[in-house]
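pasting for the record
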Amino acid sequence: MDPAPLSVRYSFRMRDGSVREEAVQLDPTSLADVAPVAADGPGWTLLAFERCPNCPLPAATGARCPAAARLAPLAAAFGETLSVEDCEAEVEISGRTVGKRLAAAPALGSLLGLKFATSGCPILGRLRPMARFHVPFADETETLYRAAGLYLIAQHLRATTGEPPDWSLSGLVAIYEDVGRVNQAFAKRLRAAGKADANVNALVHLDMFAKWVPASILDRLEDLRELLAVWVAG
């Protein structure tokens, strides 16, 4: 019997009392989103529309961007929402419920990061391992722990099989540089997805981490030296 998909359910109670929900169902092994995708979609989901400069997918008439196709229903739901509108966001994940009152843009950005990584995009999918330990509404330090920690675990596993490890984190920096290029191009898609700014600013909120990782990740890790002193000392 195959294991059940991992489920993450976001619920947003908006200022007018309306509730918008999105459930993400992930394959427990590959962490790919297993929910069906509509056979068609709005024009901004086409692969050729504002195509990312580093997109490795083959061009084909009518082909759709996998991330855009996955995101289309969510983008439509928030297409007329202002980024500063307060909401009560609640997330059910791994048997726990996490709730927070915050503006629509960062609330939506938390879900956007999960959907991007698991969408099937070959660039954003390089962050897919983080989906298994998704932290709703994570701040920069929490995201740094997950990104650097999981990457370094992967390097340890490479070393155990004779593959050269990347202890310098240069590979992680390269991943986030690529992700940043996708985010910049994808923002143009989201501008075509709705009249208000919640979708675009959710991506801006998410993209802040992708921007500072290449520039300062080693400095930020050094800032954690005191916190990790008991391990650093050996």
